[in-house]
Structure formats: C-alpha cells, structure tokens
Amino acid sequence: MVPLLLVLLLALLLFGAGFALKVLWWAAIIVFIVWLVGFVARGAHPSGGRHRWYRW
Predict the structure, then answer these.
(1) Which ranges constitute the DSSP H helices of the chain?
(2) Cα angle, residue 17 at apex, residues 11 and 23 outer, rounded to 5°
(3) Distance of CA 18 to the CA centre of its chain
(4) Whole-prediction pTM
(5) What distance in Å separates the CA atoms of residue 5 and residue 9, rounded to the nearest whole number?
(6) So what's the pLDDT on residue 14?
(7) What is the CB neighbour count within 10 angstroms for residue 4?
(8) Which single residue of 10, 16, 22, 53 could bond 42 by disulfide (Cβ 3.0 to 4.6 Å)?
(9) How far is 3 from 1, CA to CA, in rounded Å?
(10) 30, 46 contact by CB (below 8 A)
C-alpha cells in the first residue's frame, strides 16, 4: 500500500512540475514580447531624445 501511495505522490509531483514549467514558459514568452515591444517603441518618443522605456 505504501509503495502505491509513493508512486501516486511522485506522479502528482511530476504532473505539477510539468504544469508549472509550462506556465513559466508562457509567462517568459509574454514578458519577452512586452520587452520586445518596448524596445521597438522606445525610438518613437516625440522629443526625439534618448529615453528608456523602463524605470530602472
């Protein structure tokens, strides 16, 4: 009984890790797209000066 519970627990952990990694990949893709849009749009400032699109 205990080995069965351990196998089920391991399967649950691996499934959870796989789901979390998939979510992290999507989050990384979204952050990259936002960064890319900001990088491209930074040259379109009306004053024509050199401006950063981020605060830090």
Answers:
(1) 2-41
(2) 140
(3) 14
(4) 0.56
(5) 6
(6) 84
(7) 8
(8) 53
(9) 6
(10) no
Q: What is the CA radius of gyration of the chain?
A: 22
Half-sphere exposure of 3 (CA within 13 A, CB side): 0
DSSP single-letter state for residue 1:
-
Burial per residue of 40-54, b for 16 or more beta-carbon CB atoms within 10 angstroms, e otherwise:
eeeeeeeeeeeeeee
Residue-wise pLDDT for 1-56, tens only, equals 888 888 888 888 888 888 888 888 899 999 999 888 887 777 555 555 555 555 55
Instruction: Please report where in the chains the tokens 């749009």 appear, as a residue.
Output: 41
- In this prediction, residue 30 carries a pLDDT of 93
Placement of tokens 């196998």 in the chain: 7
